[in-house]
Amino acid sequence: MTANGAESTGPAVIWPGSAESTRPAVIWHDVTTTSRDDLGRFLAPYDLPDDVTEACLAPRRYPEVSVFPSGIMVHLPTRHDWIALHGRYLTVLCLPGRMITLHDEHIPLLDKLVQMIRSGNAPLQASVQALLIFLLDACIDANVHFYMEARTHVEQLAELLDDTPDAVSPDDILPLKRAITRLSIQFEDQFYCLATLQTLQATALPLTSQREGLRDIMDNQSHLARSQARLEMRLRDLYQFYLLVLQRRTDHRIRVLTVLTAVCMPLSVIAGIYGMNFRHMPELDWDYGYYVALGGMLAVAGGMMWFFHKRGWFR
Predict the structure, then answer these.
(1) Cβ atoms within 10 Å of 140's Cβ, excluding its own
(2) CB–CB of 134/210 below 8 Å?
């Protein structure tokens, strides 16, 4: 494998064999660039079809698999972190004896693949098809890691809701819900690419010998997608439980306000009566009338508070 390209490339590696090999089995060009002109000049010698060249120069934000007379193009999403807001799309061009990976941002997964191949942990069959399957398998392994991290965060949220539900806020749930949804969308897009490759008939690069490996990758991705769906359901249940806790908290506050309103109502009536401006009213000439009225109001309020407490309105 060797790497060179338009703007930024990885170190040169040849697989299999050494750097002095005159006829390597596979050459890998890993290109990182945001310049359309530089990328166009890099792809020009390969005489790609116009639609394939355009797809490489202006990559879409959706998965795509295309077969053309000289090879295969795969466009699939990846990410460096499970909570990343946006996926990084990777375009893989498979040509006879050569694989080209194109991306406009650095993808750590590719660095990991280079290290694995350099350390001897590479496919036994030195072919572009085997290298493509090797790359796809690494993507699925990364997905498993992302799923494990997402599941850990969901379980931590579940424990927090069980132990101290009042400590949970929407900011703890909604960002997690969005991140898991984005992760599920990536799993679906990758599965689409795998399913398309499984049925692909490519003359220049037949995938017949890689069907079994591709089928295993699809099974793993399918199982991962089902697990991710269950995780989404789990988070949805937690969110419903949180809304129930929030509703109970609101109901409790409304009950308290209702009790206070009920307690203050007779006091307002008493105060309204003694606020009437009539010339002849009882207790006006009584020296202790003011204190008796206040005491009566306190007694009414205290009695009502005791009654509501016995009824459990404050729980």
Answers:
(1) 20
(2) no
Q: pLDDT (tens digit, 0 to 9) for every residue of the chain, 315 residues total?
A: 444 444 454 444 445 544 444 555 788 889 988 888 889 999 999 989 999 999 998 878 889 999 999 899 999 999 989 998 888 899 999 999 889 999 988 898 998 888 888 787 777 677 888 899 999 999 999 999 999 999 999 999 999 988 888 888 888 899 999 999 999 999 999 999 999 998 888 777 888 888 888 999 999 999 999 999 999 999 999 999 988 888 888 887 787 788 788 888 888 887 887 777 766 776 667 777 777 778 888 888 888 888 877 877 666
CA–CA distances in Å: residue 95 to residues 72, 158, 167: 7, 49, 56
Angle CA 175–181–183, to nearest 5:
105
Q: How many CB atoms lie within 10 A of CB 119?
A: 8
Report the first-to-last Cα separation within the chain, whole angstroms. Answer: 70
Calculated CA dihedral for residues 243, 249, 253, 255, nearest 10 degrees: 90
Number of alpha helices (DSSP H) and beta strands (DSSP E) in the chain: 7, 6
